Amino acid sequence: xxxxxxxxxxxxxxxxxxxxxxxxxxxxxxxxxxxxxxxxxxxxxxxxxxxxxxxxxxxxxxxxxxxxxxxxxxxxxxxxxxxxxxxxxxxxxxxxxxxxxxxxxxxxxxxxxxxxxxxxxxxxxxxxxxxxxxxxxxxxxxxxxxxxxxxxxxxxxxxxxxxxxxxxxxxxxxxxxxxxxxxxxxxxxxxxxxxxxxxxxxxxxxxxxxxxxxxxxxxxxxxxxxxxxxxxxxxxxxxxxxxxxxxxxxxxxxxxxxxxxxxxxxxxxxxxxxxxxxxxxxxxxxxxxxxxxxxxxxxxxxxxxxxxxxxxxxxxxxxxxxxxxxxxxxxxxxxxxxxxxxxxxxxxxxxxxxxxxxxxxxxxxxxxxxxxxxxxxxxxxxxxxxxxxxxxxxxxxxxxxxxxxxxxxxxxxxxxxxxxxxxxxxxxxxxxxxxxxxxxxxxxxxxxxxxxxxxxxxxxxxxxxxxxxxxxxxxxxxxxxxxxxxxxxxxxxxxxxxxxxxxxxxxxxxxxxxxxxxxxxxxxxxxxxxxxxxxxxxxxxxxxxxxxxxxxxxxxxxxxxxxxxxxxxxxxxxxxxxxxxxxxxxxxxxxxxxxxxxxxxxxxxxxxxxxxxxxxxxxxxxxxxxxxxxxxxxxxxxxxxxxxxxxxxxxxxxxxxxxxxxxxxxxxxxxxxxxxxxxxxxxxxxxxxxxxxxxxxxxxxxxxxxxxxxxxxxxxxxxxx
DNA sequence: ATAGGGTTAG
Length: 721
What we know:
Blueprint: H1 16-24, H2 28-33, H3 49-56, H4 63-75, H5 79-88, H6 94-110, H7 117-130, H8 133-145, H9 152-164, H10 168-177, H11 183-195, H12 199-208, H13 214-226, H14 230-243, H15 249-262, H16 265-278, H17 284-296, H18 300-307, H19 320-340, H20 347-360, H21 363-376, H22 382-394, H23 398-407, H24 413-425, H25 429-441, H26 448-461, H27 464-476, H28 484-496, H29 500-510, H30 516-528, H31 532-544, H32 550-562, H33 566-578, E1 587-592, E2 595-600, H34 609-625, H35 646-649, H36 654-665, E3 672-676, H37 682-694, E4 699-702, E5 707-711, E6 714-715
Parallel strand pairs: 3-4
Antiparallel strand pairs: 1-2, 1-3, 4-5, 5-6
This protein binds one DNA strand of 10 nucleotides through α7, α9, α11, α13 and α15.
C-alpha cells in the first residue's frame, strides 16, 4: 500500500486521492514500521554508480550521505533509485521527509494540478510534523492567491501548522481573525500554551472558552500533567466528572498515565472499574494504558490479567510492598501459563512489563518475557532494547545487558544511556566513560539522563576529576542545565572521595542549600567516612529543609545523645513528631524459585524464622573465627535499638536475614541475589565479604544506588560506595 | 483539523 508513494513513476500525481491518502500517513511513526517499497523489488541498478559506491564503502550508512543521495535522485527524476535508496536507508530523519514533501509540492506545481482542500490540509499536516515553515507558508500564499475559501477544517490545519512551526506571531494573528472557532481550534490554542509551559494562560483560556467538549478537557488535563502539575490535573479530572462530561477512551488513557505518575493504585483500580462500566470498547491502546499503569504501580498480576483480556476487577487490602510481592508470585505463574497458551501480545505492553521487572529486580520473570520476545520475533527497537538492557543490569546480569546492547545496532541516546548507566550501576566506571566517549565520537547527542549516568559512573569508580570535567562539558558544550540529579551526583562524587571541603564549595557556588537530596547524599558520605562532626552539621541542614525522611532525625538525636546534649535530643524528637515524620523500614528481599521473600529487621513473620536465626548465629560465629567483627558503631546506624530483644543487639539486619535464607535454600554453587530498598550498611558489607570467602559463594546485592558483587572475600565496589 | 500508549534518570 504505502509502497506506491509519489516517487513511483506513472502513478504519482495522476490520482490526487492516492497522494492524499499517502500523505495522511506521512508521519515518522507510521513509516517507522512500514516497509516502504515492498512489492516492487527492483533488481539493484548497475547504472547508479553513486549508490553502489555509497553502499560499498559504507558511507551510505551515514544519514547525511543518504539524504544527499536521495536529493540527487529525486532532483534528477531518477525515481526508481530514490525508492530503492529510501527503502534501504537505515534511518530517516526530518530532512529525508522534507526532501520528499518538497518534491511533491514541486511536481504538483509543475504539472499544473490544482489541489483541493483535502490535498491542502494534508500538505499542511506534513509541514506541521516536519516543521517545514517555508513550504507551509508557500501553501498559505497559494490559498490566498487563488481565492480559495477557507472552511474551519482548513483554517485549523493552517493554524496548527503555524503553532507547530513555532511561528506564534502568524498563529496568533490567524487565531484572532478566525470567525468560526470549534473545539479543535481551542484544543490547538490551549495545547500551544501548554507545550510552551504557559500553564496559567492555558487554564485561563480553558475557563473562558464556553465549550464543554470532552476533547478540550482532555487537552488541559493532559497538558497540566505533562507540565508536572499532576495534582491540579487530578482536581480537574474530578471536576470533569462533576461537570457531567463523559469520559472517552482518550480521557481514560490520560487518566491512567496520571495514576502511574501519582502511583495511586487504588485510584487506578477505580478508573479501571469505570472503563468497564462505561461500555467503551477496550481497544489495544486502552489495554496497554491499563497494563502500563498496573506495571508502574507494581501490581503485576493485574497487569497480566488485563493482558490476558480477563476483565476481572477486585481490590485487596495489604501494605504496598507486600502486595507487590504477592503480585509477582502470581504474575510469574500467570505469565508462564500464558506463554504456554500462545497469548497475543504487542510490543507496547511487553516494554511496560520489562520495565516493571527491572524496577522490582525480578530476573526470572524478566527472562521469561525476554524469551517471549524472541519467540514472537519482535524486533529489538530502541524502547524494547533499552528496557531489556536496564532489566538485565538491574537484575544483576551485566553480561546479558551487554549482549542485548550488541544486538541493537543503532545510535539512539536512550539505548546508549541505558548501557552507560548499567556499567555505572555495576561500578564499571571506566567502561561507562569509554562507552560514553565513543558515543560522542560517533556524533550521538547526549541528553540530561546520559549525564546522570556518566556522573554516577564517575562517582562509583572514584573518577573525581573526570566527573568534574563532564559536569562542565554538560553545561558549557551541551547547554544542559544541571538538575537535582546532577547536583546530587556531584556531591556524591566528592563525598565518596571524602572531599568534604569541595562539597561545601560546590553547594555554595551552585546555590543549592535548599535541595534535600543534596544534603542526604552528603550525609551518606559522612556515614561512609564516619565523620560524626560533619554528620551533625549536615543533618541540621537537612532538617532545615523540612525533610520527612526519618533517618537524619534518628541519626542526629543519636549524635546528641552520645554528646549528652539531652535537650537537643528532645528537640529533635519533638520536631519529628510535629512534622509527622514516619519511619521507612529497611527491607531486603530475595527470590527463591517462584517466590519473593521479603525481610524487615524486626519482622518475625517468615515461616522459617527460627531456622534462619539459628543458622545466622552459627554463621556469624564461624565468620568471627576468620576475622569478622560486628561491633559497628551503632551511632552511625539508621535504626533505633530495640530494648529487650537479644538478636537485635547482634544487628540482624534485613540483608543478613535474606542472605541466611538464601544460603539454606539454595545449592552451594548458586549465587545469591539480594535486593535492598536502602543503601547497604557497612557492617553488612563486611559480613557479605567474609561470607563469600568462608562459603566460597557468590553474593550479589543490589542496594538503592548500585550493585555489590561479593566473591572470594572481595567486593566489586572495592569498598568504595 | 485537535487531545491518548512502550525505553534510560527521579
